[in-house]
Amino acid sequence: MPFSEHSPISVDETFRPPRWLRNRHVQSIVPSLHARSRWMAPRLAPLVAGSRTLVLDCGEGVRLQAYHSPARQKDPARIAVLLHGWEGSADSNYVLSLAAQLTARGSDVIRLNLRDHGGTHHLNRELFHSCRLPEVIGAVRCIQALFPDVPLGLAGFSLGGNFMLRVAAQAETAQLEIEKVVAISPVLDPVATLEALERGFRPYHSYFIRKWTRSLRLKQQAWPQDYDFALLDRLRGLRALTAELVRRFTSFASLEEYLNGYAIVGARLAPLRVPSTIITSLDDPIIPARDIERLAPTPHLRVVMTRWGGHCGFLDHPARSTWAERRAAAELANAPEAAASAERGHGASALRVTRD
Fold first, then answer.
1. Where are any strands of DSSP class E within the chain?
2. Do 110 and 140 meet the contact criterion of CB atoms below 8 Å apart?
3. Is 203 exposed, middle or buried (0-12, 13-18, 19+ CB in 10 A)?
4. Which residues, including other chains, have CB under 8 Å from residue 159's CB and lie 6 or more apart?
5. Do residues 286 and 191 make contact, with C-beta atoms less than 8 angstroms apart?
6. Euclidean distance between CA atoms 56 and 66, whole angstroms
7. What are the pLDDT digits (tens) for 192-240?
8. Residues 143-190: pLDDT tens digits?
9. pLDDT digits (tens, 9 = 90+) for 58-116
10. Phi, psi (rounded to 5 degrees) for 306
């Protein structure tokens, strides 16, 4: 294993939020609050206003929507493709915030919507599920064709980070030229994440159920001849709902087969040849930190862990960009001096991750 008792996980001590922001639930919830959206809106408005909509041909008749934001300079240093988490969108605060930093650093940015996210339920007849990797590879291939001579970097959050690492692992066979990948709080083992959502802090479970059922209703409105989700309203819980949708709308033999289909633990990242960084926290309430130990050993993957940060949080101020966004922007910009300026504190220490 890449991270064993003889090779402890290194914890980056440069992220030290104020004490009132160190609770993992505060870190995980505050980024999604409407108040933070209002605080961030004036800074992000120019990026949104200057974006143009793309509809990407991903092959097999699949179309995905994206938004292109040009760099502040005339000739972009690179193209950064950003991917949101489950039930987020290309307009999620965290995506827009990272995009604004990257355009300021000289990168063009493509903010990609997964199928059935960001109001795109009408673009494709079949339902979204997390094993639809070929169409995300197809989207990246299409972007590469649109910008053939510009280096390509990928970044994703939560499920989006999981997707981007899987894309990178198949880059060679898919003939993708990817310069760098950064995944923030990526889903590692979906089985463990589902268990964490079921047994952990109840508001997370309720949040995803609410957003997912709303999305399914939008899908039914877009394709009324194909979908009737009335029966699903009687199901309670993410496990039951996921299992029923897998049974009715996919070719997977079981819920477990589906969940294992997009896990990145085990050998999934062994083919990785793209320099990649995972940014995650020890106190993530949704992605158990112990699962980092189950990643395939590869010299192309670096893991940056913090003591605090929650799930996709990493806030050191509620109205500013997050530490992880600044770190990701520096990583994608390929600028060590920028990474150093994004860090605060007194370096890193080694800490073993113990099992619960």
1. 10-12, 52-57, 63-69, 78-83, 107-112, 152-157, 180-184, 276-281, 301-306, 348-350
2. no
3. exposed
4. 85, 86, 114, 130, 186, 187
5. no
6. 7
7. 999 999 999 999 999 999 999 999 999 999 999 999 998 777 888 899 9
8. 999 999 899 999 999 999 999 999 999 999 999 999 999 999 999 999
9. 999 999 999 999 998 777 889 999 999 999 999 999 999 999 999 999 999 999 999 99
10. -120, 160
3-state class percentages of the chain: helix first, strand second, coil last, to nearest 5? 40, 15, 45
Q: How far is it, in rounded angstroms, from Cα 37 to Cα 183?
A: 22
Domain 10-188+267-345, second-level architecture: 3-Layer(aba) Sandwich (3.40)
What is the pLDDT at residue 333? 86
Place of tokens 């050998």: 267
The number of residues making up the chain comes to 356
Tell me whether strands 152-157 and 180-184 are parallel, antiparallel or unpaired. Answer: parallel
- DSSP at 295: B
- Our CA angle for 214, 192, 98, nearest 5°, is 60
**In this structure, what token pair is assigned to residue 331?**
């990583």
With H, G, I as helix, E, B as strand and everything else as coil, classify residue 68.
strand
Q: Which amino acid is at 26?
A: V
Burial of 20 (0-12, 13-18, 19+ CB in 10 A): exposed
